[in-house]
Structures are given as C-alpha cells and as structure tokens.
Design a protein that fits this description.
The chain is an all-alpha fold and 142 residues long. Helix 2 runs antiparallel to helix 3. The radius of gyration is 25 Å and the shape is flat. It starts with 9 loop residues before the first helix and ends with a helix.
C-alpha cells in the first residue's frame, strides 16, 4: 500500500523523537546531579568519580543541544540557522566581544577576511620590527 503524502512512517517518527535532545529543564537537572555527584564522591572512589565526570560531560553536551533546539525554534534562531550561524549564539545569554567577532567573521565576505588578515599581518610585522629596534638600541646602549 503506498504511503500517503501527509503521513510519515511511525518508526521514523519514533527514531527522530529518541534522537531529539531532552527537554532543557531535565537536561540541566541531570547535569547538576552528575556535577554534584562528582564533587561529593571521595577521592578514593576513582571509578565512580570518572563515571560522574564522563556523565557530566555527556549531559553538558545534551544541555547545549537542548538550548540550541530551543533557540532554533524562535524566529531569530530560524533566521540564523538558515545562515548557518545559529550555534554562535547558543549557550550564553549575554553577548560577548568574542561572540560578536565570531559572528562577524562568519558573515563577512572572504575578501574582507583577506583584507583583515593582511592588516593584522602588517601590524604584527611593524610591531616586531619596532620591538627589535628598541631591543637593539637598548642592548647597544649598555
């Protein structure tokens, strides 16, 4: 029997649901649990501490995926996802200089990147030359 256009295979829907990130609140509480467990275990319980550390890393990744899924469900998130840069704005509520520069670097055209790289290289060469001249002048004065 041919599948109708509006219906999807229930097995595929189940797989997509299982692979989807967990709800953000659940992921954050699980991350907090594993972090608390790692901190509360005594040092001689090395295996349990290693397990708690590994689980905290896994849950940190799941929290990030859940935050990204939540962000990409917003209008701005869908727009940035279409541009391919939605991952730059996820995980922090505040905008940092590094985040703005990373976003600008992704959005700028390649020629602008080449110009910026050339300016940075020229500045570095000038700074090293001036520093070398100053060091030479100081060493010859002694």
């Amino acid at each position: 029997m041919p599948l109708m256009r509006g219906h999807r295979d229930p097995d595929l829907l189940l797989v997509e649901e299982m692979l989807a990130p967990p709800p953000l609140d659940d992921a954050r509480s699980s991350l907090a649990y594993w972090q608390r467990r790692h901190e509360s275990l005594p040092l001689y319980r090395r295996g349990a501490r290693r397990e708690a550390r590994e689980m905290a890393v896994r849950w940190r990744e799941r929290v990030r995926a859940a935050e990204q899924a939540r962000f990409e469900s917003t209008l701005l998130g869908r727009l940035l996802r279409a541009l391919g840069v939605s991952g730059l704005w996820v995980r922090r509520e505040r905008v940092t200089k590094r985040r703005v520069l990373a976003f600008a670097w992704v959005v700028f055209p390649p020629r602008m990147k080449l110009v910026a790289g050339g300016i940075a290289a020229a500045w570095l060469i000038v700074a090293l030359t001036v520093g070398g001249v100053i060091l030479f002048a100081l060493s010859s004065a002694l």
